Amino acid sequence: MSESEIDTGWIGRRIAKLRAERGWTLAALAARVELSTTQLSRIESAARQPSIGTLIELARAFGVTLSELVDGEETSRYHLTRSKDRTTREIAGGQASTLSGRYPGLDALLLTLERGASIPEARHAGEELLCVLTGTVDLTIDTEKLTALTAGDTVHFPADLPHIVSNTGEDTAEVLIVATHTPTAALPALGAGEAPHAAQGQPL
To answer: Is this structure's pTM higher than 0.85?
Structure first.
């Protein structure tokens, strides 16, 4: 899909519609997602595109799934997304296509980043799994930077840690992101000299 075919104002209009349906002011919604009223107003008017983290927080504030927020479509007993029918939306730093349906357990989306692009810092409740499909990206989680992640590399981490995805390769990068709504369970404390495990086939 070419950039000219992407409706860059759709998400903003959708957010404004859901807010109006609930009778919320800009200030009321902004307080729920920890944005200023100016930031939210700019998102609704398409003067600014929301980040992935903001989209997730908005969906949860409205009590809808990410798919319902971004695509506005209902799902039956299953949700099928054929590649040729994916709806692509403009977000801060790139483009996103939702892959999950109206089921509350997780959100899944395909993130496309052009060369040199970076998704703004995000953080939200739950857990997140990132899988690189094409290209090369860096992932910063809190103060740690994981560099040169390439096709097939995956990272699973607590989503309440601030995280940033950047395309550091020469080509467009595609990344699959799956986020759960369940708060991360407390992990055992690391012993002296221990470090998080990051070997192939093992959780980070």
So the answer is: no
